[in-house]
Design brief:
Radius of gyration: 21 Å
Number of strands: 12
Strand order of the largest sheet: 8-7-6-9-10-11-12
Length: about 325
């Protein structure tokens, strides 16, 4: 099998090069720095599969070009697949496989890091000390110990975050359609409204669907405590950005930590340090002293990268050998 690997970064070679050389997988990889979109899809000609990431364009027009060039398999080296037109993939005979769980602890640990950075004003404190300013003004936070955490979504990542919060000595509330039996004795499941009213720390860990789009909006924000911390490491579309900015202007939150945000697709993983951002979301959000934003890096640990590479290659091998496709995504 020949895999066309889109959106390659140096760190992608760490584990994919090693696994591609293993005869057990029986494949070759062609690495492209270009990301997958309608203009680059034709570069997959001659390949059997393409490997794409969360910021790739996997819409119907792109999939149609891939199919015309003989691509039968789309390997998503990530858990999310909301950027994939699954109906088009099925119509075109393209199988979609993903990596459902690579290192949930990596994302959960980053979520807690964002919460702590926002709470204790770590970024602001660092800049002050760099400027020889050791005054504590503007750096006041509060103890997480003894406070209440609200975990929205208790899959692998949400469960890992719940355990972290429990370890901090927090009372942990959770909201999910499906109750995770592994969290018995750690969380108490409640309705979303009760969670939002009670939680001092609200952390989002659910997929982006039609039902969850803008689940954090003007109405649900009003339910939250005025000194709550809101963290999102899942998908930007879970939060209505305009409503969030309005709330920040009213000093609604003690802190906000975001690893994802709406309309990030055009700039995520790219370097614009010598350019001007046309997306106004980041400049506006970073103007607030209690907001911390990172660049979709919650997954980015060595453990996670290794797990992503192994699962992706095992997905490719299973498809090539006609074995059961346990990580298949269907519309």
């Amino acid at each position: 099998m020949k895999i066309i690997f889109y959106g390659t970064r140096d760190y992608d070679h760490l584990y994919f090069d090693l696994l591609a050389a293993d005869p057990e997988y029986g494949c070759t990889i062609k690495f492209l720095t270009a990301n997958l979109d309608v203009d680059t899809a034709s570069l997959a000609k001659g390949g059997d599969a393409v490997c794409a990431f969360v910021n790739s364009d996997c819409s119907a027009p792109v999939l149609e070009v891939l199919a015309e060039n003989g691509i039968q398999l789309l390997l998503m080296r990530c858990a999310g697949y909301n950027n994939v037109d699954l109906e088009a993939a099925a119509r075109l005979g393209i199988t979609v496989l993903r990596v459902p769980g690579y290192s949930p602890e990596a994302v959960a640990e980053h979520a807690m890091a964002l919460a702590q950075a926002a709470n204790r004003r770590i970024c602001k404190a660092y800049i002050k000390v760099r400027n020889n300013n050791f005054a504590l003004d503007g750096l006041l936070g509060y103890n997480l110990y003894g406070s209440c955490a609200g975990i929205v979504g208790t899959g692998r990542i949400g469960a890992a975050m719940a355990r972290i919060c429990h370890g901090y000595g927090m009372t942990v509330l959770a909201y999910d359609q499906y109750h995770n039996p592994e969290l018995e004795g750690i969380v108490r499941y409640v309705e979303l409204g009760e969670l939002l009213r009670a939680a001092d720390l609200i952390s989002l860990h659910c997929p982006l669907t039609a039902e969850t789009h803008h689940m954090i909006n003007a109405a649900t924000i009003e339910l939250m405590r005025d000194n709550a911390i809101l963290v999102n490491t899942s998908r930007g579309g879970l939060i209505d950005t305009d409503a969030l900015i309005d709330a920040l202007r009213r000093r609604k939150f003690a802190g906000v930590g975001l690893d994802v945000y709406e309309d990030e697709d055009g700039q995520v993983f790219e370097d614009f340090s010598d350019d001007v951002l046309h997306n106004e979301v980041v400049p506006v959000l970073t103007s607030f002293p209690n907001v911390v934003i990172t660049s979709h890096q919650a997954f980015f640990t060595r453990t996670a990268l290794q797990s992503i590479a192994i699962t992706t290659m095992e997905n490719a091998r299973a498809f090539d050998r006609g074995e059961p496709l346990v990580n298949r995504v269907e519309g």
